[in-house]
């Protein structure tokens, strides 16, 4: 079906269509998905991303080249035929495993093909670069590893205490190097889970590089782990919980009296607070819940707000889906303390621009977020000199956050300003009406 043929006219006889549907199509290699148009072949590197299947004829092609906004059909013909009698025959052919007819050719314009070729070349270049650097970059099988990245490059990670809005940001002061903890002993042949004491050598955010007690200067079994994990405990937890402390098999021969060794090593040492796990659990409790409705900035028109629904909460960050998004993909991410989100009715109360939703009533399960959950705006004394319309100032360009531009105050509301950014005397795109 990727043979670069010309599409058939609508007046083609049924007999010729039948013959065409019986033509054999040479099988393509499963590891080389291709797109062919006007006699040219382009490789689509990821194989699946950007592809779609026609609901009428079963043709697989580039999603952007499909017809209609929903991208359900590969051509106008398939879209019109979907509700006609030919639908039954097409579905029957698909069930019988017959290849689609030439009518099902995906209509592609030359500019799109050119973009696909450029995209394919770009992705292939990235893949080649990744293969070249694979031996120099430390990446775990499950994804990026902060521990390996920091350790292999001798980088310095910003501490958790720098982020007061993050989980444990206000109670991380007790965690530092040389703190002792009880962790699972992975160097053991016992069938049951046992623990041993380890010391923190290095911190990288929530991650810590640990070394088992008794290894001295031997880094052979050093490992990274998340200090907030469920298997990390303060010294004394095993004794209180009835869990065994067993030295690693590699160093069992070094000492005959491990109890005396631990007493000597742990005297005067620091460990985690007894309520550390409780603090971790409490810091991961967020007041915002899925299905809550909020007003949030419209990412396509930054000078107005619109209604969105909380889809998920991760680390205090909210994934907000705009209420009018039918497929739940039109979303916006921000922190729960961000000044970009507000309670329902906020825009109207201060005179801010607001996009009304086409949805006349709340969907089942959705409810308005209580106003007290939002960050309060600091009150300022407006009795003296204050912002006025027409004033000039410097402001961050919302379309290029790395730059600061000259701005003009267009409106003063009860809580913040609406700025019209200007660069060399020209208004920014989002300011144009």
Automatic annotation (TrEMBL):
It is found in: Nucleus. GO terms for molecular function: chromatin binding; histone binding; zinc ion binding. One of its GO terms (cellular component) is nucleus. The keyword Cell inner membrane does not apply. MBT repeats lie at residues 144-248, 256-357. The keyword Electron transport does not apply. One of its GO terms (biological process) is chromatin organization. SMART domains: MBT. InterPro entries: Mbt, PcG_chromatin_remod_factors, Znf_FCS, Znf_FCS_sf. Its main location: nucleus. Keywords: Chromatin regulator, Metal-binding, Nucleus, Repeat, Transcription, Transcription regulation, Zinc, Zinc-finger. This is Mbt domain containing 1. It comes from Cavia porcellus. The lineage of its organism: Eukaryota, Metazoa, Chordata, Craniata, Vertebrata.
